[in-house]
Design brief:
Blueprint lengths: L4 H11 L23 E5 L2 E4 L4 E4 L14 H11 L10 H12 L6 E5 L2 H16 L3 E6 L16 H4 L10 H4 L2 E5 L3 H11 L3 E6 L13 H14 L2 E5 L11 H6 L5 E4 L10 E5 L1 H4 L18 H14 L4 H23 L4 E5 L2 E5 L16 H14 L2 E2 L8 E2 L6 H20 L2
Parallel strand pairs: 3-13, 5-6, 5-7, 7-8, 8-9
Antiparallel strand pairs: 1-2, 2-3, 4-10, 9-10, 11-12, 12-14
Helix pairs in contact: 2-11, 3-11, 7-8, 12-14, 13-14
């Protein structure tokens, strides 16, 4: 097994400083064996921990690093911005540049506003939906995670699913009562909710590619159904594209499926590895935001120039011809090699993927479209597989509910080597049963 001596020492210290020793819950490795690895550096598709163990990284900072770690263009852009200062609390040319870069290449938004995280973007977008419509309730779906704002911590996924809970302490019941939680992939449930509460539903919010509680790929027809019922009932369709935005296509799942949301949020990739989120919509909707309208939202570090510079550099790379086609091709080939091995050996294991996102499932079904279809006991198998993969130098997010990401730094050669090691790991796991 790999040495974790220095990580163990650092974790012991961290537990005296931070709740659970971490600053985000899933990092605590509670769903897998051992203490969390403390990462020292990253370069390309690889990371090194404080014990100098080297790993091929498929966590990619939970998705933002679509170009891999320490990409030269992003680093150079950050260094250039830093020479002029770190923060001004005033408009900068870089905000204009990143905003124009996004809007010019995205037919689904007329205006955007930058914030500092995906959670902040969604929270602000929900307030905008309520302010624009004059309605109070929202519909969200079990298995979709939209950040840790109070009204959205209701049967959410991501870290909450990891700990086996469905909501958070400290959220008043009154807040939860404004959130209608429905199962994914159930048209009748949506229609019934609209029949009961339609006059007071501001928006239906969904990850168009749910990727926080497994990779629950929805049928295009289901997303089209949501678009239709929203239009018919004066409800705003809200796509949370914090993960899928700039990942499956430049304009995200909206572009992939050619479905126009009324409000859309971005995060992760848009910041080039630094803290940035954004929300956008039509001119009519966005003009409701202060200082033009009555929906208030502000942020000291919104549009931070260093973060803007990182986002500009990364998104310019994403706009290069063939970028997304190549990402999807390498990811598909990687996943297919592992799936073919598992199928030939008769293992109850399947990897699902879309674009450059993949997910490990201990199942042989063709698709998993709702969180209820994920076997809770399969997380025991994930825990064992995770340990085997770590020893082989493969790093994933430390939860079986989380997805993995392929970056441009994951070359065909790297993926070929990893797929062979992955197949060996599956053999070790299933032969030990």
């Amino acid at each position: 097994m790999i040495s974790r001596q220095k990580s163990e020492e650092l974790f012991m210290k961290a537990k005296s400083l931070f709740p659970g020793g971490v600053n985000s819950p899933v990092r605590a490795f509670k769903s897998v064996d051992g203490v969390p690895l403390f990462i020292k550096k990253g370069d390309g598709c690889r990371i090194w921990d404080e014990d100098n163990n080297e790993f091929v990284d498929f966590c990619c900072s939970w998705g933002p690093l679509i170009l891999g770690h320490n990409h030269p263009a992003v680093r150079s852009s950050i260094e250039s911005a830093l020479k002029n200062g770190t923060s001004f609390g005033a408009p900068t040319k870089l905000e204009n540049e990143l905003g124009e870069l996004i809007i010019r290449n995205n037919p689904y938004v007329d205006k955007i506003r930058f914030v500092s995280s995906g959670t902040e973007a969604v929270m602000s977008g929900i307030r905008l939906a309520r302010g624009y419509t004059g309605r109070n309730k929202i519909i969200k779906f079990d298995g979709c995670y939209h950040g840790h704002a109070d009204s959205l911590l209701v049967k959410a996924g991501s870290g909450l699913a990891t700990f086996g809970t469905s909501s958070s302490a400290g959220v008043p019941e009154a807040f939860s009562n404004e959130t209608i939680v429905l199962p994914l992939n159930d048209e009748e449930a949506v229609q019934e909710a609209i029949r009961q509460h339609g006059d007071d539903i501001a928006c239906i919010i969904i990850e168009p590619i749910p990727a926080n509680n497994g990779l629950l790929i929805q049928k295009k027809s289901y997303l089209e159904f949501l678009r239709k019922v929203c239009t018919e009932n004066g409800i705003l369709l809200f796509f949370d594209e914090v993960i899928s935005g700039f990942r499956v296509a430049f304009a995200g799942a909206a572009e992939l499926y050619n479905i126009k949301p009324d409000i859309v949020t971005y995060g992760k990739i848009v910041g080039g590895g630094l803290p940035v989120g954004a929300y956008g919509a039509s001119d009519e909707i966005m003009n409701q935001i202060s200082p033009l309208g009555d929906v208030y939202q502000a942020g000291t570090l919104s549009g931070n120039p260093v973060a803007m510079s990182a986002g500009i550099a990364q998104l310019k790379e994403c706009l290069k011809v063939g970028f997304y086609e190549d990402q999807e091709k390498r990811t598909k080939e990687f996943v297919e090699k592992i799936n073919n091995h598992a199928s030939n050996k008769g293992y109850e294991f399947e990897m699902f993927s879309t674009g450059s996102i993949f997910w490990l499932a201990f199942s042989t079904v063709d698709a998993i479209r709702s969180s209820a279809e994920i076997r809770a006991e399969s997380m025991d198998d994930f825990k064992k597989l995770y340990s085997i993969l770590l020893d082989k130098g493969i790093y994933l997010g430390p939860s079986g509910y989380e997805v993995g990401f392929v970056s441009t730094a994951h070359t065909e050669k790297v993926l070929d080597n990893v797929s062979a090691l992955f197949c060996e790991a599956l053999d070790e796991l299933f032969h030990s049963k």
